[in-house]
Amino acid sequence: MASGNGCVPHVRVVSRRLVQASDASIQPRVLAVSNLDLLPQAIQVSMFCVYPKPSPSPSTTGAFQDVVTAFASGLPSLLNHFFPFAGRVVTDPCSGLPEVHCGNQGAELVVGVADVELSCLDYGSVGASIAKILLPYAGDVALSVQVVSFPCGGFTVAWGTNHVVVDGRGLSLLVSTSH
Q1: pLDDT digits (tens, 9 = 90+) for 7-46
Q2: For the chain, what percentages of helix, strand and coil (3-state, to nearest 5) are there?
């Protein structure tokens, strides 16, 4: 399993589900994509966050399941404020351009378990190590939140989306808002 700084991680998917916005009053709509968003084209982008083992609080055990529960319970409310992330990226059949169909189809929440320690990852080589933590998701999904646990008790959260939905600054805002 050796690779550069340590190991080649493998992630086993424990669950994969769609999470919808909780506000049923939000009306479906189609969002056109701006010309600036079309420059880099429709490509998947992600933000990767690494966390140490959570400390227990009076209301939690400090276990990874508490982290998963927090994401599962908080994501519907977050999607109320960032509703396009609950939609799908679709190509308009007439223009051939991508657009975002905001119909509350749901953001993806993926839970996985890695087989190596966080300290084993080669943070200097994205392709050989870190990229293997990111799990593939469908190209039309506007948001895939991937929470992966490690044997040391730490975990990662990968926020995957499409560049036509949001740029790097917008993705950073989404991630910081979710904390």
Answers
A1: 778 899 999 999 999 998 889 999 888 777 676 667 888 8
A2: 25, 30, 45
* pTM tops 0.85: yes
At residue 144, the pLDDT reads: 96
Question: Residue 148: is its pLDDT beyond 80?
Answer: yes
**Is the Cβ–Cβ distance between 11 and 114 less than 8 Å?**
yes
Between the CA atoms of 72, 175, 118 and 111, what dihedral angle is there, to the nearest 10 degrees?
20
Q: What is the CA radius of gyration of the chain?
A: 17
Average pLDDT, the chain: 86
Q: Does residue 57 or residue 74 have the better pLDDT? A: 74
Phi and psi, residue 51, nearest 5°: -130, 145
Q: What are phi and psi of 48, to 5 degrees?
A: -120, 120
For each of the domains in the chain, give its residue range(s) and CATH number, in order of start.
2-178 (3.30.559.10)
How many residues appear in the chain? Answer: 179
